[in-house]
Structures are given as structure tokens and as C-alpha cells.
Amino acid sequence: MRIGADLERCVGAGQCVLADPSLFDQNDEDGTVVLLSDEVADDHVEAAREAVRVCPSGALSLVDDE
């Protein structure tokens, strides 16, 4: 599973970082999402799904590689 981020839509709320700080960070300049990895390990799938659900701008998406 891969995660995608649309930086044009991101409002820098940081909910993704709260959901899984091992997958997400925030840009120091504008607060937008920084993907620490676009590949989601099996043990982080639920946290990634939660990040997509709670993103207020809908900037995150998950793509199943299968």
C-alpha cells in the first residue's frame, strides 16, 4: 500500500502527524505534510487509514498496490 499527498490541498493541520508520526511530518516553513515514506508497512496500515480519514482538507490518499 502506498500513500499520496496533494500539497496543493494540504492546510497544515497536522492531524496526519498525530495519527502516525513514523509516516508523516510537517514542513517547517509552511506546515504542509511531508511523507517520510510513501510505502506503508503492514503494521501501519490502520494508522495511515486513520490519517486519511481525519485529514480536514482531503489531501491524503491510499493506493492498494494489489
Automatic annotation (TrEMBL):
<keyword id="KW-0249">Electron transport</keyword>
<dbReference type="GO" id="GO:0009055">
    <property type="term" value="F:electron transfer activity"/>
</dbReference>
<keyword id="KW-0411">Iron-sulfur</keyword>
<dbReference type="GO" id="GO:0051538">
    <property type="term" value="F:3 iron, 4 sulfur cluster binding"/>
</dbReference>
<dbReference type="InterPro" id="IPR051269">
    <property type="entry name" value="Fe-S_cluster_ET"/>
</dbReference>
<dbReference type="GO" id="GO:0005506">
    <property type="term" value="F:iron ion binding"/>
</dbReference>
<keyword id="KW-0479">Metal-binding</keyword>
<keyword id="KW-0003">3Fe-4S</keyword>
<protein>
    <recommendedName>
        <fullName>Ferredoxin</fullName>
    </recommendedName>
</protein>
<dbReference type="Pfam" id="PF13459">
    <property type="entry name" value="Fer4_15"/>
</dbReference>
<comment type="function">
    <text>Ferredoxins are iron-sulfur proteins that transfer electrons in a wide variety of metabolic reactions.</text>
</comment>
<dbReference type="InterPro" id="IPR001080">
    <property type="entry name" value="3Fe4S_ferredoxin"/>
</dbReference>
<keyword id="KW-0408">Iron</keyword>
<keyword id="KW-0813">Transport</keyword>
